[in-house]
Design goal:
Elements (H helix, E strand, L loop, with lengths): L2 E11 L3 H12 L6 E14 L2 E15 L1
Length: 66
């Protein structure tokens, strides 16, 4: 039975919440191996002049410990 570890990560994007999530996974995978799942805990956005300028996510990444 594998042992998993969960960490919390924050990320942002000017494109979308999905892109912010993908950027978090891409960056985390540079130092973490065996990422298994992503749970988006919170989503928020920065609004300037009535337009969304930045999408933000707070998520949990789980990965297998070897």
């Amino acid at each position: 039975m594998p042992v998993l570890k969960v960490i919390e990560v924050m990320s942002s994007s000017v494109l979308s919440w999905e892109d912010a999530t993908q950027q978090a996974v891409t960056e985390a995978s540079k130092t973490l191996k065996n990422i298994r799942s992503v749970y988006v805990k919170e989503q928020s956005a920065v609004v300037v002049d009535d337009k969304i300028k930045e999408y933000r996510v707070n998520l949990k990444l789980s990965f297998t410990i070897e």
